[in-house]
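#onboarding

Welcome to the new folks! Below is a worked example of what a typical request in this channel looks like: someone posts a single protein sequence, and someone else replies with the predicted structure as tokens. Don't worry about understanding the tokens yet, we'll cover that in week two.

Example request:
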Amino acid sequence: MSLRHHLHHSSDSTKKLERKQSGTSLSEGNSMEKKTPSRKSSESEGIKGGRPASLNEGLSLTVVDPLLAVKSEAAQLRKEVDVIVGEFQLILRAFQEETGQKHNNADQHALVLRQTPQEKMLEKLLESPYTSIFTPEAHQKNNRASLFNVSMETFTLALAPQRAVSYKEILFPNINPNSLSHDEIVKLSQRDYDILPYKEAQDEMHAYLLIGQMFRDLGLIEKFKIPELTLYRFLYVISKRYRAVPFHNFFHAFNVTQTMYFFLRTCHAKDLVSELDQLALLIATICHDCDHPGLNNDFQKKAQTKIYHLHKKSILENHHFLHCVSLLTKNHTNILINLSEEDVSHVLTTLRELILATDLSIHGLIMKGLSERKKILHKAWKGANPQSLSEEDRKLVLCSLIKCSDLSNEIRTPQIGQKWAKLVLEEFFLQSDKEKEMGLPLTAFMDRQKIIIAKEQINFIEKLCMPLYTLASAVFPQIESCVRQLEENRNGWKARLATFFTNQDEIKKLSNQSIWERKQTKLTGNLTSILAGRATKGAPTPKSTPSKGK
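Example response:
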């Protein structure tokens, strides 16, 4: 079917649905009235022999408010109209891409879905995030003319440009969920699953299929009535919002998501996590580094970028969350479309907290919480009773799971772990090069002239991963296999280091202090207050909603 045919067909369908909603079509309006229960019929069903049925048969009397029923049906029709109009938008944009010209239909403006104030604000907040606020003249005065190469053009500070989205691919996704083999589906739930071959082939489509399988296997598609087409559109668009930087790219997001799936399914963490929170965990891992520039929070502060002045705390993490929300406000990528308003609010609040929890500055707080509450959490896990958790404990469990997932490179086999380690350091080195080029203070642990990869990985495992995973395994015993793999990989890096250096003094002379050896920022307060304090004020935020009984 051609794009022109889709354009014509969608336009007709949209007009019919809009007439149906507004009541301009008599026959369709009458149809809607027939579906609405009348007061007379409601009363006749609830009354028997002139007395309420509850008096005659012991049944409670149910009175249906016809106005409420009409409002409910009208809201559903509005949602259907919005979906059709959204589809028309996609068709129109795909048509423009194909023909290279704009569609000058007189009805175009009436059919384009209106942006809500929240959507407009998100669009503005996400615009040119990595542009420095300084002008070239200002930097020349500070002997930083090299920052802009004495150019008046807009200077974007990122290791890779933004990627284009094809509306034709969104409209007609080439997806076949049945193409996954049984063997790969089985491997997907295992700890040492390796996505790197697909990364090397740049096969993001296969990653969409695998993530779709995770949603399906956990029962999330059926439970929350997620349209599979919408899910794959969501995955396609979010993948394009990841830049092609060495490490913080879409395949890293997949790696973190697959680890979360391993925790939930194979380590039975889902016994302590409600289904709604399982949905939030998967969405958070998919989106947690969206639009990462390959340059960390410290760099944003030193370079005085737009997002530093916008967010101040957890700079990149707040930016990643806004990207996540922006996709969930669009009909064609809103995988929460069939959730109740209360559940949507709960998921969005949880997403914000989970993505903020990936900030390393909160690592120590999560460790402290796990150390103090591990026995209570393990007891709740054994009883498979997530409702027994306090709100603070619930957040601790979820934040611990995403923190472990984000730091999971070394829980895989040495061959896989070493490849990811090289990608991390490649990104570090490029940031150090950028700092030198711009005349900014150098980040010591990223200096390619001093860093020793084996020492970095030993510190990463010993200072960060093993303490975290050891505590997590006290709550979820199956995570113990990750601790054993960390020990094996640590020993392998130590053996590798010993082949190059004969004593520790020689290593200390050559190597700078590692990022993992630095002290954590001291934070006061509980997890709830700290996360709330790091969320950007004034940005679109969800309403608070109770978490129990989900």
